[in-house]
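for the writeup, i need someone to sanity check this before i put it in the appendix. the sequnce is what the collaborator sent (i think, or maybe the updated version? ugh). structure was predicted straight from it, no edits. if anything looks off just tell me and ill rerun, i have time this weekend
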Amino acid sequence: MECELALEQALPKEAFEQAWVFVRKRCISGFDFGISLKIMDEALQEAVREMTGNFPSARLTETDPDLLIGEGEKRRLELWLPDSTVLFSESYSSHKIKILLGGLQEAISNLLQAQFLRGLELETDVYRVGFTLEAPNGAPEIRMNKDLSVLTINNQGLKRVYYTLIDIDARDKVSILLPSEGWNPADLALEPRQSRAHRLSFDTPGKEVLKLIVTPGPIDLREALLARQRGWRPEGFIEDLFRDSPSCR
């Protein structure tokens, strides 16, 4: 972490050596996105503008936006992608603005988290773990809600590892594939030179992005995924990153 300070006056070197730094807010940097507002109701537009201020990397723009927020039919507030995919749609009235904005903010947070995780690459030479995904009978595609594909994870390193697999589907929905229901995080361990196969199915058409996370101890990102609504505090770096990305607090 680096920090630049603008001093109002010169200070002796000893003052810096004895100084404390307090982190007031943490943000994911280098993540910028544009939002276009198409809202005629002035009060609602002002409330949405204020809400977008909760995202430090957000900027309001009329050209080439990444997200669009506007009014749909029957007094509905909606969130769209540029290709017209609707990500959020709720009716609004003057007495439910706060609840409405909370849902909209959560929808934006979930989308940005998915896009952030798509590009996240954390690599190290300490662990040498990989995986392969095979469709049934060598088919070129996996049919949603029909095929059970085989995911094989291999530990070619010299240490025991624990693994977690997250999925980002074509609609930018983030889900935890492993550990799945009935599995505990401690069960997903691989000794050196060991491999394990899992059968997986997918329920959304389009391109899936799978991210394999390997750690020296068991972690449960299912809790971190729910924590965005419950206020639970994570205990480790990966859980912390997964819970907060790419928001600020």
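Residues 229-234 have pLDDT under 50 and may be disordered. The longest strand covers residues 161-168.
thx in advance!!
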